[in-house]
């Protein structure tokens, strides 16, 4: 989810795509002195910004990159041509990492959510800034579109998307409006869907941060449609298990649902309570890693000024213990 501004060119990618928390990521995943080959997993290739910067960092670096979006393939081919066998790309969801036989890794990186290429491509239907079909699939070659989901899903799935994943407090109104709009065509286009949600939600309560009324619901639909949270829950342990001793796992999240999963996983691997209700004793915990920082790493003011979409990014990282 390395969001970009529209008018800034990134030196890492040569495009408007700016990899988020790049300096901090490179600091974590830089190869150790004297290392002849240092293999890093980029589980969310996207625009390729982090991957390119890692490959440029040191000739010892080799990157194995994954992406479920077929649109990432041309960007991967450009890196294959430039870096040869130091770069390897696989068109799969990172949640299926366990099925991939690529050896072990010295480091692993996840950058969750949308890439700017996905968000800013009108026909993908992720944004209501454009009038486009309501698609929202990370992989448009598989599954059903968001429009079909909205037309056919049962009420339980709609509630999960809007209330649980969108964290929309006025979810009842939104779900009711979606059910009433079935068959009218209002669920087929991004702007008509956004207008429907806006009318259902009503004005923003006084004192609450002003965001577009459809933002949370669009997020929730996307998360539900692409099974994003379950993918994170499967992908993190799969990557950690493939880490070599002293290897680093780093994950960048962009909203509280993603960050909560990453935080709990990091605390679990470090033998700490996963949440406030985790009352297990020390003897019941397994310490397999140390947390690089107890608090998430956030972008600095300079990065936010250059790339406002990075504002919500949070980076957490683990170092695998040698005895594991």
Written account of the structure:
With 324 residues, the protein is α/β, with parallel strands linked by helices. It folds into 2 domains: 22-117 and 228-320, 3-Layer(aba) Sandwich (Rossmann fold), CATH 3.40.50; 122-226, DNA polymerase, domain 1 (Orthogonal Bundle), CATH 1.10.150.170. The chain contains 12 helices and 7 strands. It has helices spanning 22-29, 49-57, 73-83, 116-119, 146-152, 155-165, 171-180, 190-201, 215-226, 228-241, 256-269, 301-306; strands at residues 38-42, 61-66, 87-90, 105-111, 243-253, 289-291, 314-320. Strands 3-2-1-4-5-7-6 form a 7-stranded mixed β-sheet, with helices on both faces. Strand 2, helix 3 (73-83) and strand 3 form a beta-alpha-beta unit. Helix 1 (22-29) crosses helix 2, helix 6 (155-165) runs antiparallel to helix 7 (171-180) and helix 10 (228-241) runs parallel beside helix 11. The chain is globular, with a radius of gyration of 20 Å. The protein starts with 21 loop residues before the first helix and ends with a strand. 46% of the residues are buried. Mean pLDDT is 91; it is low at 1-16.
């Amino acid at each position: 989810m390395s969001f970009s501004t529209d008018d800034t060119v990134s030196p890492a990618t040569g495009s408007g795509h700016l990899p988020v928390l790049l300096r901090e990521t490179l600091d974590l995943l830089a190869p150790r002195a004297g290392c002849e080959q240092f293999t890093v997993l980029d589980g969310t290739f996207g625009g390729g910004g982090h991957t390119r910067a890692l490959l440029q960092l040191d000739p010892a670096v080799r990157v194995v990159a994954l992406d479920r979006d077929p649109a990432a393939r041309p960007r991967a081919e450009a890196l294959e041509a430039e870096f040869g066998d130091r770069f390897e790309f696989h068109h799969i969801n990172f949640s299926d990492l366990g099925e991939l036989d690529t050896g072990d890794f010295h480091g692993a990186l996840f950058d969750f959510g949308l890439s700017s290429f996905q968000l800013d491509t009108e026909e993908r239907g992720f944004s209501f800034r454009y009038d486009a079909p309501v698609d929202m699939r990370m992989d448009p070659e598989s599954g059903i579109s968001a429009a079909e989901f909205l037309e056919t899903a049962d009420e339980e799935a709609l509630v999960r998307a809007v209330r649980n994943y969108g964290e929309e407090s006025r979810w009842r109104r939104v779900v009711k409006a979606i059910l009433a709009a079935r068959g009218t065509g209002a669920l087929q286009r991004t702007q008509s869907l956004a207008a429907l949600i806006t009318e259902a939600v009503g004005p923003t309560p006084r004192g609450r941060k002003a965001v577009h009324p459809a933002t949370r619901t669009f997020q929730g639909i996307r998360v539900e449609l692409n099974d994003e949270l379950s993918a994170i829950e499967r992908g993190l342990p799969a990557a950690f298990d493939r880490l070599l001793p002293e290897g680093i796992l780093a994950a960048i999240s962009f909203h509280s649902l993603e960050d909560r999963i990453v935080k709990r996983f990091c605390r679990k691997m470090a033998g700490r309570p996963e949440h406030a209700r985790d009352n297990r004793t020390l003897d019941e915990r397994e310490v397999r890693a140390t947390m690089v920082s107890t608090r998430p790493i956030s972008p600095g003011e300079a990065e936010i000024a250059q790339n406002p979409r990075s504002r919500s990014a949070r980076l957490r990282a683990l170092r695998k213990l040698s005895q594991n």
